[in-house]
Amino acid sequence: MSDKPTPPADGECCENGCEPCVWDTYYEELRLWQEEQSRQQKESENAE
């Protein structure tokens, strides 16, 4: 199981509309982490 992504620290976002923003990257990593958690949960339920 991988660790949950850490949100950007205060001041990491420069608020200049960068593409991708550090927040875009964080939310994508969080989405992938959540999918992984759901998949692992389903696998553990099926193993029982």
From TrEMBL:
UniProt superkingdom: Bacteria
Oxidoreductase-like domain ranges (all copies): 3-40
InterPro entries linked to this entry: Oxidoreductase-like_N
Protein name: Oxidoreductase-like protein, N-terminal
Source species of the chain: Marinobacterium iners DSM 11526
